[in-house]
């Protein structure tokens, strides 16, 4: 479990021994957490966003990592627009490329089975 530090002076002392320091911003609460990892423990310190830059300048960390900049977004699935006939007319349906590929495979299998049954 991380240990919360309430004094910035204590955080500065701990940051000298730190392996890594991380910053995690919480925009909803207008706060940030500074996480200091030592060999044995993880220490956290909460600070207001407007005071964060001053605190980071005073910090003596070997490696400062901004977690919000590291978060990688998963690539979104490509969407394919396809017209499907309905009773009222043509309807444009958007589906993912994977779903479209599965539908195409099903249609190919059905077509092959129809061809093989008509040949016999």
Description:
The protein has about 120 residues and is an alpha/beta fold. It has two domains: about 70 residues, Signal recognition particle alu RNA binding heterodimer, srp9/1; about 40 residues, no CATH class. The protein is built from four helices and seven strands, in the order βαβββαβαββα. The strands form two sheets. It has a five-stranded mixed beta sheet with strand order 1-4-3-2-5. The N and C termini lie far apart (about 70 Å). The model has no long low-confidence stretch (mean pLDDT about 80).
User: What is the straight-line distance between the termini?
Assistant: 71 Å
Radius of gyration, rounded? 28 Å
Largest sheet, if any?
A: 5 strands, mixed
Total number of helices: 4
From the structure provided, what is the oligomeric state, counting identical versus distinct chains?
single chain
- CATH fold naming of the largest domain: Signal recognition particle alu RNA binding heterodimer, srp9/1
Which range best describes the helical content: under 10%, 10-25%, 25-40%, 40-55%, 55-70% or over 70%? 25-40%
Average pLDDT reading: 78
Question: Reading side by side through the largest sheet, how are the strands ordered?
Answer: 1-4-3-2-5
Structural class: alpha/beta
Can you count the beta strands? 7
Shape: elongated
Task: Offer a quick outline of the entry.
The chain is 38% helix and 33% strand. With 120 residues, it is of the alpha/beta class. The protein has a five-stranded mixed sheet with strand order 1-4-3-2-5. The chain has a two-stranded antiparallel sheet with strand order 6-7.
């Amino acid at each position: 479990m991380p240990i919360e530090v309430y004094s910035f002076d204590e955080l500065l002392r701990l940051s000298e021994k730190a392996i890594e320091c991380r910053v995690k911003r919480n925009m909803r609460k207008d706060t940030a957490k500074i996480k200091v990892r030592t060999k044995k423990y993880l220490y956290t310190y909460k600070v207001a966003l407007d005071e964060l830059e001053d605190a980071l300048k005073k910090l003596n960390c070997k490696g400062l990592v901004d977690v919000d900049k590291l978060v990688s977004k998963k690539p979104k699935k490509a969407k394919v627009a396809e017209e499907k006939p309905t009773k009222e007319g043509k309807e444009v349906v958007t589906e993912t490329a994977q779903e479209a590929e599965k539908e195409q495979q099903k249609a190919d299998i059905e077509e092959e089975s129809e061809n093989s049954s008509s040949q016999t």
